[in-house]
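DM between two lab members

TW: hey, do you still have the DYW domain-containing protein entry open?
JB: yeah, one sec
JB: this one, 1032 aa:
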Amino acid sequence: MLSYQVQNICRISRFLFFTSHRLCHVISAEECSLLLEHCVQSKSLKDGKTIHRQLLKNNYSVISSYLLDKVTCMYISCGRLDLARHVFDEIPNPNVVLWNLMIRAYAWNGPFEFSINLYTQMWASGIFPTKFTFPFVLKACSSLNSKGHGEEIHNHILRLGFESDVYISTALVDLYAKCGALVQAENVFQRMSYRDIVAWNAMIAGFSLHGLYYDVMRLIIGMQEIDISPNSSTIVTILPVVAQAGALSVGKAIHGYSIRKGFSHEVMVGTGLLDMYGKCGCISAARAIFDRLDSRNEVTWSAMIGSYVMTDHMREALTLFDYMLLQDCGTPSLVSLIYALQGCTKLIDLRNGKRIHCHILKSGNLSDLMACNSTLSMYAKSGVLDDAVRFFHEMNPRDRVSYSAVISGCVQNGKSLLALDFFRNMQFSGIDPDEATMLALLPACSHLAALNYGICAHAYSIVRGFVADTSICNALIDMYAKCGMVNIAREVFDKMDKRDIVTWNSMIAGYGIHGQGFDSLSLFHELRAIGMKPDDITFIGLLIACSHLGLVDEGKYWFNAMIQEFHIAPRVDHYICMVDLLGRAGLLEEAKTFIEKMPFTPNVYVWGALLAACKIHKNVELAEETSKRIQNMGPESSGSFVLLSNLYSWLGRWEDAAYVRIMQRDQGFKKSPGCSWIDINGTLHVFTGGDRFHPQSGQIYQKLAELLVGMKKLGYQAVPAFVFQDVEDEEKEHILLHHSEKLAIAFAIISLSPGRPIFVTKNLRVCGDCHDAIKYITLVTKREIIMANLITGSQSSLLHPQLHPHATLAGRGPLSISYGGVNIFSCCRPVGSSRTKSESSLICRMSAVSHHNRCLQKGFGASLISRASGLDIEVPGEAVDVKPDSTGEGGDEGSGKDRNGGSGGGGGGDSGENKGDEGSDESNAKRGKALLMSQKFTLAYAALVGLGGLVGYLKSGSQKSLVSGGLSALLLYYVYTELPKRPVFASAVGLGLSAALLVVMGSRFKKSGKVFPAGVVSLVSLGIGALVASSG
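TW: and the structure you got?
JB:
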């Protein structure tokens, strides 16, 4: 026997040698079979192709199916499924073994759908699968998450009686679990007569995949109760769900079990353990496991780098990434590159970010959407917005994460208008925003003080159920506070179920910037009363509130308490607030001493706060000294120059003022022109001082002249000192009248309906004259006017909006938000324009969204948004009061007082229209009830008449009775169907038919002597006829 095998090996070697030198002779089928078997075992593709070629040369048409089977097996073993499939398709009648080999090959290597297709062909060709077929095809189904195909194959298994096979049942459990059908998976699992460790692992893996921690623990306990110990695969399966649940104590117990069983040294178990420790925040334990592993794969490196990133150890993550590259571990995995890129993003490390971007390019992973989004976020948050926008436009495809990243980057870099453009493009592309998108969009509305845009975003958040998220509500509070609607911000605050420290900080700061310092202090005490610990941001808002109210002693107390009681080290922002507090109160020397005693070198913003106070109190000497300090440090903006120049101008020192301006110009600083903007029905209109570029500038200047007359009657006098130019007082008064904020207010008055509140935003501080003038304008116009100013610099979290001074953004159009193909919120026509009752300024369609009712129950309904916007909001199916409140803010209510005590105007017509509509609705309701009742009686009458004709035919055999009864019933049914469409016509037909029936039936009853039934029928007929007629 041994000599025969040696002879075969020699013949195989001799054949392969000769074929390689093209000196081959014809060989027998037996020899070919041996040669192909040798190629299968050695996985020699080159030799196998040589043999296949020789078979084709000899005579392909007479090659036996047995040899083709061998050739197919050879290609399968060598991983060439395309060639194997080509040969397989030429075999006339492949046996079930070869079918199984092909199905298994595709199930393991893909494409997985080919495995299912082969199974279908096999079943259709009349070859029944064996118990070896089903585990492979079910694996292909689970890889595709194809539950439908899996259920069909499950039916075949039941039909063939293979469900008791442990391998097939395990494959079914794995399929259903991975497809999310956990109930079906557990049903199959419970019906198994015998369950081995693989079956238990499949069931545990399914629950772990879907994050069901307690079910996983239940299964782990259950398998141990029947004396089946978890193996290393079980440990690897359960560690992710333990990490997700943050169950550190359970994770430590699993770690101890792994050590006792000797699993901890295995790469997969070690990787799972370090990942669990990292996600539970124990980064030192994770690193210890990483260092003790004898061998590490790319998953291990990625898990360790990711753990550092998730625990905010960015430097360590990048250091480990560089160490991985030095260890020559091959090309970095995509996951490790993304984690490293996230570390660069959080560190704002552009240099390393570009380096990792190059690694992604070299590895060919730039087509991966997650890698692209991480790269985009890195460039955007590193301040290189131009590169980020360019990269965004090169991306294909893009998802909501891409748009959220670029919108957030635009806002962080002060390009809020560009952020709104990207958001609009996102809508046009059919991508629905998510929570992250709204968190990026709402700060853009805050920075621009674009209230209508913010209201639209609020409405969309309600529709999608985002208001259940604390971060969304925090952003809404911040947006409403910075848009001047602090009362609406407080309503959002009060309706929140869960508040974090950011919530409290936003509300405290909102009260502070609106001068409602006592409310801010009250809220701070409430924060302490519930046991929540304030942070450094809380005290910034508190100090701002004290500064605006002039509560010097209160501010000093809380500054010291922050250090001594709460052990919070003050940052430069706290010192700026304290200098501003002392400076506003006129304690300039104390403020200077406070700065000099700072534990670190004060920056230009600290001295700038003192300089602003010097201007307020006209202390020239200290202002000059402070200005020199700022010049020595290197000013970062034109603010210090402007303050000093204005102070000189105020005092009439025009030469000194001109010198400061020249010095500002020589140092390359340019003052941003003052501009104001207002949102009218979704369109931003921007004005500068003396602006005549607006299309309606003639009407605006005429309205200003009218307002000036009314203001002077009430005692207004212009303050020429606020014009820092050397001109006559009359010219100064003319300049003051045409300041940008006054132009914006005048435009709002001629554009908005009476009673609507006016909200104007300015990029600089409002001058004292405008501040006084706006108070008089509120009295003249009897409406609420809200002014907000966006100041650049570290004292404010707001960024400069970068509006073009002469841009009227009418081309942008109104903001509208759609969901599921339905426009759910849009800015439409203003209140008071020609419209039907069903149209309103803001239309909110919320009826088709699952979170709608829950959000309304929590108070985030249309009424709140209606009060925020001062506009009507219609919510189909919502039984809430959506009219403006009695303060007259909305302007549509007809009567009522506005906040200044004046009577609201222009509303009586709407009130009368509403009453008329109510009467019409009541009439329509009565008519509808009558119509419904008439239809019911008509249908019943038709049935009775038809039944009467049939009874008459059965009793007397009269065909006339049957025909007349049937025709009458058909006519009455016709009346029934036509009543809603043509009630008058149908009523006439019904009445005529009732009269005819009355005559015929009455005469018949009379002949037979039955007078009483004739009378009853007559009354019924007349009653039905009257009902039918009355429905018209």
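TW: got it. Residues 376 and 391 are 7 Å apart (CA to CA). The chain has a mean pLDDT of 75.
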